[in-house]
Design goal:
The complex is a heterodimer of chains A (193) and B (530).
Chain A (H helix, E strand, L loop, with lengths): L2 H51 L24 E9 L5 E5 L3 E4 L5 E9 L5 E10 L7 E6 L5 E3 L4 E10 L9 E10 L1 H5 L1
Parallel strand pairs in A: 1-9
Antiparallel strand pairs in A: 1-3, 2-4, 4-8, 5-7, 5-9, 6-8
Chain B lengths: L4 H9 L8 H7 L3 H29 L10 H36 L7 H9 L1 H10 L27 H28 L12 H32 L13 H18 L2 H15 L6 H14 L15 H29 L8 H24 L1 H7 L3 H31 L5 H27 L14 H30 L36
């Protein structure tokens, strides 16, 4: 083999190696972008997963479409407790006007929450609900809730906010107490931007 | 495995090195050995930097009360200490080993993508430059813990989130490029005849680790991007007020975070599996079971992330699922520990420093593994969560695990890298000082945690005072002991007993068939493998 052939041979070998490398690189880069996208896809997937399984105590933030209960289960009594807290930085008074009520599954109830903006500026609040035990979240149906919308309160304004709900009669037998917790956040900055 | 050593050496003699002089050699280098050296030095500098931060932490915790630093600055110290040790010390050190050793072990002339290799190293100093520069800014460094849980890092951030996010992005890109390079090299550049199941276990562990990196570093990049937009652009991925969920952050983070801990330990398994057979003068026991164990640990690592989140109010089914999956990992890990012990069993052992560090690794990593099993038990995790028990656990696996394996590997291959034998008695000093001080440093932390001392606090209840004093003394001693290593390495580079091509009589592998120090270019023609 003379020098020229040897070089030619080497070049062929190199370009073959480069194509082989490029094939692998292409696949790996696709995995990289795929996993980056997967990270973002996990965000809606997480919500769907919690929604289906009722894990995490996430309760719907939209109204139950229809009140489709055939009969009220008067034999069972479920205790529903209400708690509220304000996130750091929102100068509102915010609490349930009833701490606890007893309902029959299927029975519609209306309770009220009290909120007062104790500061001297206008603030928009957003209440975020959560149900404990988490598995009961799927059976807690809200017909009307102040958490469906944002609550703008002017300085020193106070308001009574309504929550209309029923507990689905399908609620598992072993759950006799539900706790509905609201956390109130200041979303003024977010709304304005 | 045999190769024609003489042909190899004479071949290299005819070569011109094409080395540039001075700083340009290091800036422009595409040579896998140069880049490996750069990675290893960078990792060691970061180890000392992160260690210096830890020294301040231990000085503050030497006695109860606030002595030296403000609580907010203390939080910055713990955060940056964690980030530097994980992303700056352990991971680049392993990439350094990969660069130096993989081409030599599989009989390749260099890494497959040398130019990208240069890039993946040289962006790293910028990442850590950005991260460390925040210490000198008005807002201060990140103070939300290396796990950067939202909303601590979003709503309550001190303003360093953007710097943190960009630093992590750069580290991630560097790791991904490094990992792609490793995979391509191993898949395409093995010497003819080296089938996958003939590869040294060292190469296997890095191969699997590289896949883990490619799979999870992009998820980390996604999480920090969400963090960035949540903090500065008004999105609500993790903000409950806008319909997001802070618990989602933890799911996403640990989906990256748990495979990440195996990224930091699988290469350690590879190093130790190379060294123990060499000094036990026996073949590695159960090679193929080691390969499968490594692969199954890697696969299981994707199914256990929520064991970091037992106290977030997960439903019972979730807790049980993640508990059992986590405990399942003990099986392949147990296979590994068994194989290391079986390799030593009736071997004709000798105890040079690499072997000492490897044996210490096996014992102390197992202790760390056992405390990990305890943490995996959901009911008791409620007691251990966020206490010093967790700190003890992950320092046993990361310091006496990963770091000790790095030391073992460094001593093992120093003769190959420098051409000189290191000073064995100084190295033994390094080992024994480290071994004693590291246990004084981390072992009492188990009891502090069980007694209820929370992690990430600058001050503590009085009853923890005595133990913390001893822990701090252990910490200072361990910190100082690492300077012995620096001395050994510098001495070894500058001179010492000339190393033979194969200075360890029990060692096996292609890297020992080339001269010591390894010529600038090795295996320009692939070796023959039987």
């Amino acid at each position: 083999m003379n020098k020229g052939d040897e070089l030619q041979n080497l070049n062929n070998k190199d370009s073959a190696a480069i194509t082989k490398n490029n094939q692998v690189i292409k696949k790996l880069v696709m995995i990289v972008f795929g996993m980056f996208a997967f990270g973002f896809a996990l965000v809606p997937l997480y919500d769907v997963f919690c929604d289906i399984t009722g894990l995490n105590g996430k309760t719907s933030t939209t109204a139950a479409a229809v009140y489709n209960v055939d009969q009220i289960d008067t034999k069972r009594i479920v205790t529903v407790q209400f708690i509220s807290r304000t996130a750091q930085g929102i100068p509102w008074q915010f609490e349930p006007m009833v701490r606890e009520i007893k309902v029959h599954p299927g029975e519609m109830k209306l309770v009220k929450f009290y909120a007062k903006n104790e500061s001297t500026r206008d603030i928009i609040g957003q209440a975020v609900p959560s149900v404990s035990p988490g598995l009961a979240a799927a059976y807690f149906q809200k017909i009307e809730c102040f958490c469906f919308t944002q609550q703008p309160l002017q300085a020193n304004e106070e308001v009574e906010m309504a929550l209309q709900f029923y507990v689905d009669p399908e609620l598992p037998e072993d759950i006799s107490t539900l706790t509905l917790s609201y956390t109130l956040y200041d979303v003024t900055g977010k709304v304005e931007s | 495995m045999t190769t024609d050593v003489i042909e190899q050496e004479s071949h290299d003699d005819h070569h011109d090195d094409h080395k540039m002089k001075g700083i340009k050699r290091w800036l422009y280098t595409t040579n896998h050995k140069d880049i490996g050296t750069l990675y290893l030095w960078f990792a060691f500098i970061m180890l000392l930097t992160g260690g210096a931060l830890a020294m301040v932490i231990r000085a503050e915790l030497f006695q109860p009360g606030l002595q030296i630093v403000e609580p907010d600055f203390f939080n910055q110290l713990t955060t940056v200490h964690g980030l530097i040790m994980v992303f700056g010390a352990i991971m680049p050190a392993f990439t350094g080993f990969a660069n130096w050793m993989i081409p030599m072990m599989i009989g390749a002339p260099d890494m497959a993508l040398p130019r990208m290799n240069n890039w993946s190293f040289w962006i790293l100093p910028f990442a850590f430059g950005i991260l460390l520069s925040t210490f000198f800014m008005e807002s201060g460094a990140p103070n939300f813990g290396w796990t950067f849980y939202a909303p601590l890092s979003t709503t309550y951030s001190n303003g360093s989130t953007a710097f943190f996010v960009f630093a992590v992005h750069i580290m991630g890109i560097s790791s991904i490029m490094g990992a792609i390079n490793i995979v391509v090299t191993i898949m395409n550049m093995r010497a003819p005849g080296m089938t996958y199941m003939k590869m040294p276990l060292f190469v296997w562990t890095f191969f699997i680790t590289a896949y883990l990196l490619i799979a999870v570093m992009p998820v980390l990049a996604g999480v920090v991007t969400m963090l960035l937009t949540d903090t500065y652009f008004g999105t609500s991925f993790f903000d409950a007020a806008g319909g997001g969920d802070p618990v989602l952050f933890q799911h996403l983070f640990w989906f990256f975070g748990h495979p990440e801990v195996y990224i930091m330990i699988l290469p350690a398994f590879g190093i130790v599996s190379t060294i123990i057979p060499a000094f036990a003068r026996k073949k590695l026991f159960g090679y193929s079971s080691m390969v499968y164990a490594t692969a199954s640990i890697a696969l299981l690592s994707f199914l256990v992330w929520a064991h970091h989140m037992f106290t977030t109010g997960m439903p019972l089914f979730g807790e049980l699922f993640f508990m059992y999956c986590t405990m399942l990992i003990a099986v392949p890990t147990g296979v590994k520990v068994f194989n290391w012990v079986a390799t030593m069993w009736r071997g004709s052992m000798s105890f040079e420093t690499p072997m000492l560090f490897s044996i210490a690794f096996v014992i102390l990593f197992t202790i760390g593994g056992f405390s990990g099993l305890m943490l995996a038990l959901t009911p008791v995790d409620f007691q251990y969560h966020d206490t010093y028990f967790v700190v003890a656990h992950f320092h046993y696996v990361l310091v006496t695990g990963s770091l000790f394996s790095i030391y073992a590997g460094a001593y093992f291959w120093l003769p190959k890298w420098t051409g000189h034998m290191y000073n064995e008695s100084l190295a033994k000093w390094h080992f024994w000082c480290s071994l004693i001080s590291v246990n004084l440093l981390f072992f009492p932390m188990h009891f502090l945690g069980l007694a209820g001392m929370p992690r990430r606090i600058p001050d503590y209840a009085l009853q923890f005072a005595d133990f913390n004093k001893w822990v701090s003394i252990g910490g200072f001693a361990f910190g100082l002991s690492q300077l012995i290593f620096l001395a050994v390495v510098i001495k070894c580079i500058r001179g010492g007993e000339k190393a033979a091509a194969k200075p360890w009589d029990g060692a096996e592998g292609l890297e020992w068939t080339v001269a010591s120090p390894a010529p600038y270019h090795t295996f320009s023609t692939p070796p023959k493998i039987d």
